[in-house]
Amino acid sequence: MRPTTPSPALPIDLAKARRVAVDAAEAAGALLSAGVGGPLDVRPKGTGGDVVTELDTAAEDLIVGRLRAAYPGHRIIAEESGVLDGAPGEEMVWLVDPLDGTNNVAIGMPVYAVGLALCARAEPVLGVVHDPVSGRTWSAVRGRGTLGPGGTPLTLADRPRPGREKNPVLAWTQGHQVKAGDPVAFALRSALERRCARMLQLWAPLVAWTMLARGDIDGMVGYLPEIVDLPAGALLAAEAGAELRRLDGEPYELGIDRPASELGFVAARPELLDRLLETTTKIDQDGGRTRVAW
To answer: Among 181, 235, 237, 238, which is disulfide-ready with 3 (CB 3.0 to 4.6 Å)?
Structure first.
């Protein structure tokens, strides 16, 4: 993923799209904040331990309604509703995660976020993440940098962390399809934990992405990640100065048309990237055995 490459010519004003997305995310965040303190109807979602609540669907309906009003021809891929078709041949696609961290909300843990991404020809060009707990919002346009709360430019270079190269704080994320006994996930996590000060698993990847973009943590590793929340967070971190690679060290090209098996990543401060790749490139998909080949 190369954040310095400007977006190709698009049939859309990205500055306006950023405003629409920020307003929608913040409105959804207000809805969530008003509801998390009350009783929730928590229902199982699939067989992997995930759950869904009425807050997920209400926040998603709000966001989708605003996107449809502003861009009636765009396609939308939403966490709960799935694929919502747009005009024939439309190349602009919105990804909507109305409540990233539902499992946390269900147990009363205030770690969750709202995320939106806009993709052109399967490539993310706009990302917005709102944290309802703190009331803060971050956004990024491909090739134009990341903005923090109040529209302040956000760059990792402004927040150096001397000495953390050998003792970093990392975040880990994995998709719901990853089973408890997955040998690659176990090998990756175990190897990384031996080389860091702390490994966070927040079960709300968008929150972790904003922490990386701010420089609060030093890196993030994802194995078979969920596609709906990935582009918004990855674009925030990349435009703030984080570098992304595939788990095998090859260049990372994020596209929503790729299978989950190709979306595993290492994202980190530039000075830490090689150290993390020394670990991840030694873990392959064949039972987590230590060898470089993938």
So the answer is: 238
